Amino acid sequence: MNIRHLEYFVVLAEELHFRRSAERIGVTQAPLSLAIQALEESLGARLFHRTRRSVALTEAGIALYEQAPAILARIESARESVWQTVSGEVGRLRVGFTNAASLSPIFPKLIHDYRTQRPKVQVQLRELASSQQLDALEARDIDVALLRLDDQQPARATLALTPLIVEPLVVAMHTKHRLAKLAKVRIADLRDEAFIAYPRSAGVVMFTQIQALCAKRGFTPNIVQEAQQASTLIGLTATGLGVTVVPASLEAISLPGVVFRRFADADTTTTLHIGHRYGDGNSRVALFVELALALRKEFA
């Protein structure tokens, strides 16, 4: 059944007049008559009684008219659904993020702005270590990633990774720690300190970055305690068990007995990146990346 023919049928069924129907559709009477004839042939039934003075629906025409508007409405709904999916108005967006990234000032604003512009898109957030996000992107388990990069990570030719914000590293320590009286500390000052750190096996970039910063100063951090969560790392410093080095955005975790100190070293920064697959035609991803890059200027 031709959709255009069905649309013509509905108009004629409502007007019961060929000239008025043709004018309403915006065609001449000839193509309207041909469309109705073709529809009748495809259905194997006459739909209208025609005389020189009148047009009336047959029983078959009445039966079709009872269904036709709903059929056309469903078709239009399907068209709208397809358009919304292609344009990114609906669907699903799977966003990977690191534990620390969730406390970055760009994260809540980015998610809020995206959900404001695409309220019908289902945003699924997955907390993953940076190395896990890279694997998940390649495996198409997530659509976009907010992660930190390790200089030792091999390049991934299929992934586009763009810097978003650079933030300083800070050291969290007990308020009565010997270094707490300083306005700024150096990585070298931590040579003899006990460290609380992420496990190496967790795939957290901060682990390898801290190792590299210490190695550059000629020592290996003395890790006495491991923890999976950023909040746990900072919470454990309140016990006096050791110090921990984290992105400055984690200063938002304010706990009694804990102070944060910035570093005097110029190389003590960490960069949050946004990642997605090259050539991904997903318009939902494109908008998310666009919003993230716009916010990059705001938080530069």
Q: Which structural class do you get from the secondary structure elements?
A: alpha/beta
Helical fraction equals: 40-55%
N-to-C span = 58 Å
Q: Major sheet, described briefly? A: 8 strands, mixed
Q: Helix count, per DSSP?
A: 9
Tell me the Rg in angstroms.
Answer: 32 Å
- H and E order: HHHEEHEHEHEEEEHEHEEEH
Q: Let me know the number of strands.
A: 12
User: Uncertain spans, ≥5 residues at pLDDT below 50?
Assistant: none
Overall geometry comes to rod-shaped
Beta-strand residue fraction: 15-25%
Task: Give the overall pLDDT as a whole number.
Answer: 91
At a glance:
Belongs to the LysR transcriptional regulatory family. The protein is an alpha/beta fold and 300 residues long.
Core attributes:
single chain, 300 residues, alpha/beta, eight-stranded mixed β-sheet, two-stranded antiparallel sheet, 9 helices, 41% helix, transcription regulation, LysR family transcriptional regulator
Give structural notes.
This protein has helices spanning 3-15, 18-25, 29-43, 59-87, 106-117, 130-138, 205-216, 230-237, 283-298, and strands spanning 48-50, 55-57, 91-97, 121-127, 144-148, 159-174, 184-185, 194-197, 222-226, 244-247, 258-263, 269-277. The strands form three sheets. Strands 3, 4, 5, 6, 7, 10, 11 and 12 form an eight-stranded mixed beta sheet that branches. Helix 1 crosses helix 2 and helix 1 (3-15) packs across helix 4 (59-87). The model has no long low-confidence stretch (mean pLDDT 91). Helix 7 links the parallel strand 8 and strand 9. It is rod-shaped. The chain is an alpha/beta fold. The protein is built from nine helices and twelve strands. InterPro entries: LysR_HTH_N, LysR_subst-bd, WH-like_DNA-bd_sf, WH_DNA-bd_sf. This is LysR family transcriptional regulator. Belongs to the LysR transcriptional regulatory family. Keywords: DNA-binding, Transcription, Transcription regulation. Residues 1-58 form the HTH lysR-type domain.
